[in-house]
Amino acid sequence: MDPSRRLFLGAAAALTAFAVESGLAGSAAGATGKKRSDVGKGGKPGSGRESFFTRSADGTQLAGEVQGDPAAPEILFIHGLRQSRLSWDKQFADPALAGFRLVRFDLRGHGDSDKPASPDAYSDPDRWADDVAAVITAAKLRHPILVGWSLGGHVAGTYLRKYGGSRIAGINLVDAVTKLSPDLLTPLAGTFAKTAISHDLGERTAATADFLAACFHKPLTDVELQRMLVVNGMTERAVNEGFVKTSTPDLEPVFQAYSGPILLTHGIHDRLVRLTMSERIKALHADSRLSVYTDSGHSPFYEEPERFGRELAAFATASTRG
């Protein structure tokens, strides 16, 4: 058995205890006392961070956090499939990004956000778009940079499709899924698309562990793997089932039509999304730049965070200037 797989399965028995210890379970239980449509006090003491809850157009409640000077240039982070807002911990602690207003949230079906049980809640692109719009409003963002990782890139595209790009200063697509096509995704990604929606709990659990391992090229610490396994296990099964049935599998025309700048970030060792996916957007969009990370897999912002922070800060500064 693969060492990473063995670690994941061995940690599964401690999921509940770890969730309580890490505060993940407690954050969900205490949600009702927070403001639901605006930024409210919360977050870790001394972090300068505030938590908020807001409701999307269909009533789905979304959990988010905001950090930094409200007058500073803004960056909104959108995480990937089966992940959470915690994916961006390294960016929220990065000195290179300290001069920005940083916002992150849990996508519907993930983390502390509501988890509709129907696949229809995830197959309709307008619902993802409305979630982004709700977060922008709740966090009082004026002209943010959108950073979309993996599924988050698709979500950013659904926002552009419905709301246009006039309020978006720039987009950073990180190993993003912009078109659901077998020639742009790996066979492994295709396998996970099937096993992750299995009604067999054992198969789905094993697929979750394997999927998480496939997101990284560099080995992670035991603690990192355990935390991520907890988060992945919180994801509603219907997310995967609904997303693969989306009515807008191709968002390339949307990104092509976007008038703002695009930074494309891609790990060369990505085992899920082929580099060709990013190269196609680069060819379609004149004001775009592709940055390939030679020591990263599907998660360059996590595997090479210092470089990622520098490049994002430079991109955000240039995109929001004036």
Tell me about the largest β-sheet: 9 strands, mixed
Number of helices: 15
Q: Helicity, in percent? A: 40-55%
Give the total of domains.
1
Shape: globular
Distance between the termini: 55 Å
Element order, helices and strands? HHHEEEEHEHHEHEHHHHHEHEHH
Strand content: 15-25%
Structural class: alpha/beta
CATH-level-4 superfamily name: Alpha/Beta hydrolase fold, catalytic domain
* CATH architecture identity: 3-Layer(aba) Sandwich
Question: What Rg is obtained from the alpha carbons, in whole angstroms?
Answer: 18 Å
Strand neighbour order, sheet with most strands: 1-2-3-5-4-6-7-8-9
Using the coordinates shown, work out and report the CATH topology.
Rossmann fold
Per DSSP E runs of 2 or more residues, the count of β-strands stands at 9
GO cellular component, one term: membrane
Protein name: Alpha/beta hydrolase
Domain AB hydrolase-1: 75-305
Keywords: Hydrolase, Signal
